[in-house]
Design goal:
Helix content: 25-40%
Number of helices: 5
Structural class: alpha+beta
Largest sheet: 5 strands, antiparallel
Distance between the termini: 50 Å
Strand order of the largest sheet: 2-3-4-9-10
Mean pLDDT: 92
Order of helices and strands: HHEHEEEEEEEEEHHE
Radius of gyration: 17 Å
């Protein structure tokens, strides 16, 4: 029987790609998430105002054990914070990486990660906006409606440097767009009106995070 690490690598590599070249992130979700999380160490979450969240992250150029360990730590941190997505700068690391463990609108679970993500531009005929509420681990306890396309495609690389593509609809599409924004220095509140942004920051100030955070200043 293959070891857990070998199984995890097999699921994340080429065998788990569909006929259109998209990563099949709906299979072996529990095993893959658990493998990453058990190898990783949970870290506190950086919050709005921390400089690392407000600038474009560095491209990943080294596909090594250090990157693999970072991805493991991100899965562990995401689980501690009970999030559905987490970018590297949300644990203070200036690199273009995000992980996710997110359901779509049909309740199907998606688990995976993308290195050096790029959000593909949708043709106008595919841009159906959804103005559901959105929140962020880096803006704890705050929520606001934000219109985003209900379909998303993100391309990037896996931890070995191989090309990877992920697609999602509904809530999962929102997650993919939200996390890609993070690695380019944007929080969801940056896309709100001044009034709604102010309200979100007020919600954050009045709330208490349910997970460890890094205090600013």
């Amino acid at each position: 029987m293959a070891s857990q690490q070998e199984t995890d690598q097999q699921v994340n590599e080429g065998a788990a790609v569909d006929g259109e070249g998209f990563f099949v992130d709906t299979e072996e979700c529990e095993a893959r998430e658990l493998a990453h999380r058990e190898r990783g160490t949970s870290r506190p979450i950086t919050v709005v105002g921390n400089p690392v969240l407000h600038k474009e992250c560095a491209d990943v150029t080294e596909f090594d054990d250090k990157l693999a360990s970072l991805i493991d730590d991100m899965f562990a941190s995401q689980r501690t914070a009970e999030g559905v997505g987490l970018a590297a700068n949300q644990i203070g690391v200036d690199l273009k990486v995000f992980v996710y463990d997110c359901p779509d609108d049909e309740g199907t679970r998606h688990v995976g990660y993308v290195v050096n993500p790029v959000l593909e531009e949708l043709p106008p005929e595919q841009r159906v906006l959804d103005d559901s509420n959105e929140g962020c681990l880096s803006v704890p306890t705050a929520y606001a409606p934000l219109a985003r396309p209900d379909h998303a495609v993100v391309s990037g690389q896996d931890m070995h440097g191989n090309p990877i593509k992920v697609r999602g609809s509904g809530y999962f599409a929102r997650c993919l767009q939200h996390e890609t924004d993070h690695v380019y220095g944007y929080l969801y509140i940056d896309r709100l009106s001044k009034r709604d942004r102010k309200d979100a920051l007020r919600q954050m100030a009045e709330g208490t995070p349910r997970y460890p955070v890094v205090a600013n200043g």
